[in-house]
Amino acid sequence: xxxxxxxxxxxxxxxxxxxxxxxxxxxxxxxxxxxxxxxxxxxxxxxxxxxxxxxxxxxxxxxxxxxxxxxxxxxxxxxxxxxxxxxxxxxxxxxxxxxxxxxxxxxxxxxxxxxxxxxxxxxxxxxxxxxxxxxxxxxxxxxxxxxxxxxxxxxxxxxxxxxxxxxxxxxxxxxxxxxxxxxxxxxxxxxxxxxxxxxxxxxxxxxxxxxxxxxxxxxxxxxxxxxxxxxxxxxxxxxxxxxxxxxxxxxxxxxxxxxxxxxxxxxxxxxxxxxxxxxxxxxxxxxxxxxxxxxxxxxxxxxxxxxxxxxxxxxxxxxxxxxxxxxxxxxxxxxxxx
Length: 338
Fold this sequence. Notes:
The chain is an alpha/beta fold. It has helices spanning 7-19, 65-81, 86-92, 105-110, 159-171, 207-220, 241-247, 265-270, 287-309, 311-314, 321-332, and strands at 24-32, 36-45, 53-58, 96-100, 177-186, 192-195, 227-230, 254-263. The protein has an 8-stranded mixed sheet, with helices on both faces. Helix 1 runs parallel beside helix 2, helix 2 (65-81) crosses helix 9 (287-309) and helix 6 crosses helix 11. The longest helix has 23 residues, at 287-309. The N and C termini lie far apart (61 Å). The model has no long low-confidence stretch (mean pLDDT 96).
């Protein structure tokens, strides 16, 4: 039983109802925040594990409602296209798609970044940073009264974090190719696309594939305004869920998780009164600005789905990987190509 309406959850459930039999839906877990709230996991497309897959995630931080709205809007976009778009049907025959638009409904209902237990879900994985992190931003274990609380040392992951990881392992890991996009908002005047790692400055093994993805994105979207970079360029952190999922991914296949960090200072700059609202710091509060944000990121999410479906056309072959690695090191890590 829910104690009060949660608009983002109600909108998601309307889209689920609209999708009907085209969607396979499960409640990944339930959380209590004045009532019982579900964490929905929604799939569509071909379930064959030999095919590529994509996951779209939002609402990991309860204050960042715009991430949930972006992911739900894209799910709505796909569901309504099923009535008329033959090319989408063809694409879904060769790719699996997972949506978890609202991972932290308890935090969203309480207007907190953390979940109802006070744990920051993006600091909750069993990964410790290998270098010094900014305190407390990088994660702390003093307690939930301070932000960025990791949870008790040695305790299992929170139900919401564990549910996200379980679905990634089930639906994305072990395939020949998979991607994830986790939608957040935070301070900054630019929209950023981050990739792992957050716990160390050294690059991930799939750096050549990330560089190849970057290349096809910049060629097909030459006027994009995203800053694409490793998260470690901004700060290091303990407990990052995507670092954990990269480190525990099976050796076979390629897994590329990305984080969209929407620059909320764009909205605050245009409406400084938002600084006096907890939600206004992280979300556009004026309707036409929110609509603009939802339109702005739709091409990115659609690109990710289509790139996964056509991964065999652009992934570097074995003999090309080292060249891509050297270009990536020069682009993102300041290394001089050999």
